[in-house]
Structure formats: structure tokens, C-alpha cells
Design goal:
two-stranded antiparallel sheet, globular, 24 helices, about 0% strand, 4 strands, mainly alpha, about 600 residues
Length: about 600
């Protein structure tokens, strides 16, 4: 491959065949498109803009699930839970957390299963689940904003720990928390899997120890916590307005399913032999994250309550201070370094995931807008730069308002995708499979995209109080309800005709596909890819991979604008051929 981002040497649109491979496996002619070295290295690139082939999915269901769950070690849950309960009181706060967790769990089930089944990330699933090829660029931005908002939040928590333990100034701490993740994220899924596995014992001990200490040293604390009325005068009883507002804050985490999907796409194919482990792993690593997340929110609120008198409200909302106070009875002067170690490990575990997922999302966005792809790793720096700017602006101080606003957009997106998977596909309002390739999709599908835009617009207007106090408090419920109703309604009104621009004769319904892992040689980059990653291209007069299709700025979308109804004649696919990229050398064992 060349160091150029892409090079198209023949005359644009010339319907020539790809170079035939020699016995040594190299094409006899130079490929039309060459990728920059980092973009061509799938051990780092991790098939960031395309289908994850079966030849690459060498991890066991257990390993994929444990890696995905390692990414939810974040302590933002502690801060969010404490903020909700301090603002709205115990009863309304806990009800908010549990309600949000239920919604996140239910919407996450179909998305997790789709990502694991089809080997696709959240952006590619969104394309085929009612948004269209360009319609999902907006959700790429929504998802990217989730990753840098929460990177900034988690980085702020780590910087607070560094400041308290080592007296590092916060601005310097923000920079250090940003730089420390780069070498790990740069190396992709293999490195992330190792980091999550190696740090898991430390994290589990650090997570459980404060609660064990308090169970012995302050056994009556839970009873007192249950009657806590908050710090803002909300009272310990139930209040509908506080419940609605608190649920909105907790629902800001709904886009976390996207980060889980970035791991779930590497789940091996489900077989009769691994069916039970596969189903359990997908459930645990997909929507199951929120079970742990909700427990952490409640636990974080409890620790902050116990530490409130000793450290004050401001520091009680910073996870490092309650950790120290809880550990002091047993660890004494060692409590500070022990708590700081736990916080740093936790934040590294989540922020490598935030940075990794953000790089995928930005790659998806810019590849469609610019038709160029220099490689996933370059977008790591863009995502981290934005996160660092947010940290320096002290976004931690505006936590509730920021997350409450974001949740209105995030839940409209996730609910629309879930509605397509759970309602539209079973009812025949949309295709039974997920189509993600540019060659077969309309630019925008009003079913999902329209549902999200309408639902989020109405809910944001409500969030700013235009429709009154009650609508403001329940704006996220409005977003969720509208998206769930509008997606199937719009699909029905449009007859589902905006899901596919033309039929997929390569691996779509009705195609004769004896082996889904069979490969075609891409006529542009002359690399072999499995059938789900291949489209038939009339301009190239043969097979093209999904990424070359996305990056082609000169084809004029001939296949979509004037379909002849006749598929392009292609040679028979190769069964059992290698796929460039392959499993990560030194990565986790498939037998784990």
C-alpha cells in the first residue's frame, strides 16, 4: 500500500477489472486505490469503517464480553449518581436512576444483538436501521460528542485524584490524563483487551473495599441515606418533577451502548456449540453494562452522602474525596494513595474506550463528508483535543445541565434505532437484515432520521421550558416516546422504500450465499474481503469493498441514481481465502 490516502490512477469511471493476482498473491497491476500505512494496518485500524470479518473475530465470547465490561469502570457514575441524589433527594433520585437503567437496558438489547450478529459498529447499524447513508453522519457527531464529553468528565475526575494525591495543578493533570491513553488507543483492540484484563483485579478490589469498610465501621449509614432529602431542599419524599429531571440526567448515558458495540462487533459467529455463552456474553456486555452502572450510581451517591459532613458538598461530588473518607478507618494515611490508584486505574480503563470509540466515530463522519480516510488513529488526536478543551473550561461544574441537554438527543437516536430493529423489521416495514454499504442505501431515510430529528427537536424545546415545568422535567420521556412511535409510522407512510436504493445481489435476501466468509477481490484496492463487505459496482465493473465504495468521489453514485435492475457480473467468490488484516498478533486467545 502507498502512503497516500488514496490514489485513483485509471480514468475516473473506467469499467476495468481488478488486476489478477499472481501465484505469490500480488496483483499484476497497481491498484487504483492505496491507503496510508496506518489506514491499511488492520491490527491498529480494527476495520474501523467496515464490517468486522469472521477471519478477524478470533476472540471468544467471554473475552469480548470481559473487555467490553472492563470499559465501564468509569467513576462518572459515582459523580452522576451523587449529583442526582444531592439535587432531588433519595427517593426521587433512586427512582430516576432505576427508571433510566430500565430504559437503557431494554433499548440496548436489540442493538447489542444486531452489532454482534452482523459484525458492525453503532454507526453502520444506524445506517441500515432507518437513517440512510448520509443520515447517520449526524448520529456520528452525536456519538462523537458523547465520547469527548465523557472523556472530559472522566479526565476531570482523574485530574482531581492527581491533584489531591500528588499536588499536580489541575490544568497539568488534565493534560496528563489526555496524553496517557494515546499509546494504548493507538494500537487498537488487542492493546485495549490486554489493558482491561490486567487492570481488572485492582479495579474490583478498589470498587468493593470502601463499601466493605463502611459495612463494618458505619452499619447504620444506609438507613440514614434512605431518609436523605438532598442538599437543595428537595426532601426525602417522592417528587414527580425531580424524578423527571433526574431521569433525564441518568439517561445521558444511553449512548454508552455505542461503546459496547465497538467491542461486540468482534463477537464470533453464534453456533450450536457456543449459543448459550454467546447469548449470555452479548446480554452482559451489551445492555448488561447498565446493571453495574446503576449500582455504581447508587453506590457513588451513598459514599458521597457518608462523606458530606467531612468534606462538604463540592468535594463530596468528586469521587476521590468520598473514597478517601470511606477507606480512612482501615487504611489511615494509606487511604489517599490507595484511593488515588483506584481512581487512576478506573479512569484509564474507561478513557481508552472513550478515545477509541471517538476515533471510530470521527472516521465514519469524515470518510463520508470528505471521501478520504487517513486512518482511525489520526482522529484520536481530534477527539482528545476537544475533550481537553472541555476539561480546561471546567465542564464538571455544569454537569447536570450539560448531561440533561445531551440526553434529549441521545435517547431520540437510540430509541429510533431500537424501534426499527424491534418493530419495523418484524412487521416487514424495513428489510430483515442490516444493509450498511453506500451502494445500496439512499442518502437519507426519513423513517429513523426523521423520527430522531422531530423527537429531539420537540424534546429540546420542552427541555428549555417552552411547554411548561412538567414537559421540561419529562423532556427525555417525550424524546423516547416520539422516536418509538414516529420511526414505524414514517416507515409505514413511506412504504419502507427509503431503506434500500436497490437490491443487494451479493449477500442480500435472495442471494445464493453458500459461505458468508467467501471473499471477493476489491477492484479498487485489490484486497480480499468477505461477502458482507462487498458491493457490486457498475463503474468498476466488478466487486468493490465497502470502504473503497465510501471513498469514491468520482463514481457519481451511478449504481443508486440509475439502477438497471441487473447485477454486475462478477467472478465466483473465493472460499477459504485469507482476508487482509487477520487476527491481532499477540492478542487474546480464541480459547479464553
Amino acid at each position: 500500500m502507498t502512503d497516500a490516502v488514496d490514489t485513483v490512477t485509471p480514468e475516473a469511471g473506467a469499467p476495468t477489472q481488478a488486476g489478477e493476482p499472481t501465484q505469490a498473491g500480488a496483483p499484476t497491476t497497481a491498484p487504483r486505490r492505496g491507503y496510508a500505512r496506518l489506514a491499511a494496518d488492520e491490527s491498529r485500524e480494527d476495520y474501523s469503517l467496515r464490517y468486522a470479518p469472521h477471519s478477524y473475530r478470533r476472540w471468544s465470547p467471554t473475552m469480548v464480553a470481559s473487555t467490553a465490561l472492563g470499559g465501564i469502570a468509569y467513576l462518572a457514575d459515582f459523580a452522576i449518581g451523587a449529583s442526582i441524589v444531592f439535587t432531588y433527594g433519595f427517593t426521587s433520585g433512586i427512582a430516576s436512576i432505576l427508571t433510566a437503567a430500565t430504559i437503557i437496558f431494554l433499548t440496548g438489547i436489540p442493538i447489542a444483538r444486531a452489532c454482534a450478529t452482523y459484525g458492525l459498529d453503532m454507526d453502520l447499524i444506524t445506517r441500515g436501521a432507518g437513517f440512510g447513508y448520509f443520515g447517520s453522519t449526524l448520529t456520528s457527531l452525536i456519538y462523537a460528542s458523547f465520547t469527548f464529553i465523557f472523556f472530559a468528565l472522566e479526565g476531570s475526575i482523574m485530574a482531581q485524584a492527581m491533584h489531591q494525591a500528588l499536588h499536580i495543578p489541575l490544568p497539568v493533570g488534565y493534560l496528563l490524563t489526555t496524553l496517557i491513553v494515546i499509546p494504548i488507543v493507538f494500537r487498537g483492540m488487542g492493546a485495549l483487551a490486554k489493558v482491561q484484563a490486567w487492570t481488572q483485579p485492582i479495579w474490583l478490589i478498589g470498587l468493593a473495599l470502601p463499601f466493605v469498610v463502611l459495612a463494618f465501621e458505619a452499619p447504620d449509614s444506609w438507613g440514614a441515606f434512605a431518609s436523605f432529602g438532598g442538599t437543595e431542599g428537595a426532601g426525602s419524599g417522592f417528587d414527580w418533577i425531580g424524578y423527571g429531571l433526574g431521569t433525564g440526567v441518568a439517561l445521558s448515558l444511553i449512548a454508552q451502548i455505542g461503546e459496547q458495540a465497538d467491542y461486540l462487533r468482534f463477537m464470533p459467529a453464534k453456533t450450536d456449540e457456543n449459543r448459550r455463552r454467546w447469548n449470555l456474553a452479548v446480554l452482559a456486555a451489551g445492555p448488561g453494562w447498565v446493571v453495574i452502572g446503576a449500582a455504581k450510581q447508587i453506590g457513588g451517591a451513598f459514599l458521597a452522602f457518608v462523606a458530606l459532613d467531612a468534606v462538604g458538598k463540592t468535594h463530596a461530588l468528586e469521587p476521590i474525596a468520598p473514597q478517601i473518607e470511606a477507606l480512612k478507618p482501615w487504611l489511615g494515611s494509606v487511604a489517599l494513595p490507595a484511593a488515588a490508584l483506584f481512581v487512576v486505574v478506573s479512569q484509564i480503563k474507561i478513557n481508552v474506550t472513550n478515545a477509541y470509540s471517538g476515533s471510530l466515530s470521527w472516521s465514519n463522519f469524515f470518510s463520508r463528508v470528505t471521501h478520504r480516510h487517513p486512518g482511525r488513529v489520526w482522529y484520536i488526536f481530534l477527539n482528545l483535543a476537544i475533550a481537553l478543551a472541555l476539561m480546561e473550561m471546567n465542564m464538571f461544574a455544569a454537569l447536570n445541565k450539560l448531561l440533561g441537554f445531551y440526553s434529549n438527543v441521545g435517547i431520540a437516536w437510540i430509541a429510533a434505532v431500537a424501534a426499527d430493529l424491534v418493530i419495523n423489521k418484524p412487521l416487514g416495514l424495513s428489510p430483515k437484515y442490516i444493509e450498511f454499504k453506500r451502494a445500496y442505501l439512499h442518502p437519507v431515510n426519513p423513517a429513523g432520521f426523521g423520527a430522531m430529528v422531530i423527537a429531539s427537536t420537540v424534546s429540546i424545546v420542552a427541555f428549555f421550558g417552552v411547554f411548561g415545568e412538567v414537559a421540561e422535567a419529562f423532556s427525555t420521556f417525550i424524546a423516547c416516546g416520539l422516536a418509538l412511535v414516529l420511526c414505524p409510522l414514517l416507515a409505514w407512510l413511506t412504504g419502507g422504500r427509503y431503506y434500500l436504493a436497490r437490491k443487494n445481489p451479493v449477500n442480500g435476501p435472495g442471494a445464493d450465499v453458500p459461505d458468508i466468509t467467501a471473499t471477493h477481490l476489491c477492484a479498487s484496492c485489490e484486497t480480499a474481503y468477505e461477502l458482507p463487505d462487498i458491493a457490486d459496482c457498475p463503474v468498476r465493473a466488478g466487486a468493490v469493498c465497502s470502504l473503497c465504495c465510501s471513498l469514491d468521489a468520482e463514481c457519481g453514485d451511478v449504481c443508486r441514481k440509475a439502477p438497471t435492475g441487473e447485477p454486475v457480473l462478477m467472478p465466483l467468490p473465493t472460499v477459504g481465502g485469507p482476508v487482509v488484516g487477520g487476527p491481532v498478533v499477540g492478542g487474546p486467545s480464541a480459547s479464553t
